[in-house]
Write a structure and sequence with these properties.
Elements: E1 2-5, H1 8-18, E2 27-31, H2 38-48, E3 63-66, E4 73-77, H3 84-89, H4 92-97, E5 101-105, E6 119-125, E7 131-136
Parallel strand pairs: 2-5, 2-6, 4-5
Antiparallel strand pairs: 1-7, 3-4, 6-7
Helix pairs in contact: 1-2
Bound molecules: adenosine-5'-diphosphate and magnesium ion.
């Protein structure tokens, strides 16, 4: 199912609604270019989980963690990762074992490491403020 949003606020609202469907251990993989709205969407997820902290891109830190919401949220930016080996070096398996919700920007770079039960969120820029957002693999959604 593809949903159209027409502003960053609408994308946040959509993500916030989607947060109700999240469960411990889920992996959400974004597909979408720079500026598509992956970090904006993650901000909405955090809001929906009751996390009030500012959500920024973990471009330099690779991972940001938020543990003040209904579920523990861990936000990755895999932009600079070039191999699945590096994923294991940053402790992916340990994060997996925590029962958190893992959200992955630039999941394309680590696609081989993601299981078949991964939720995919594809965001396509169709105009300055418009996005086509397609969510697949989320039980109960759509
Ligand atoms: P990414 O993490 O995919 O690189 P960001 O979320 O950091 O993208 O940035 C998206 C940019 O696009 C922001 O400047 C945001 O304000 C803008 N934008 C405009 N319209 C939308 C929309 N409908 N949904 C999400 N972001 C939007
Ligand atoms: Mg981003």
């Amino acid at each position: 199912m593809t949903i159209v949003t027409n502003s960053p606020a609408e994308t946040e609202q959509l993500a916030s609604a989607l947060a109700d469907f999240l469960a411990p251990g889920m992996v959400l993989a974004f597909v979408g270019d720079l500026g598509a709205g992956k970090t904006t969407f993650t901000r909405g997820l955090a809001r929906g989980l009751g996390i009030k902290a500012p959500v920024t891109s973990p471009t330099y830190t690779i991972v940001n963690e938020y543990d003040t919401g209904r579920l523990h949220l861990i936000h990755f930016d895999m932009y600079r990762l070039t191999s699945v080996e590096e994923l294991f070096e940053i402790g992916w398996e340990d994060y997996r074992a925590q029962g958190a919700v893992l959200v992955v920007e630039w999941s394309e770079n680590v696609a081989e490491a993601l299981g078949p039960d991964t939720v995919t969120i594809q965001i396509e820029k169709t105009g300055n403020e418009s996005r086509d957002i397609t969510i697949t693999g989320l039980p109960g959604w759509g």
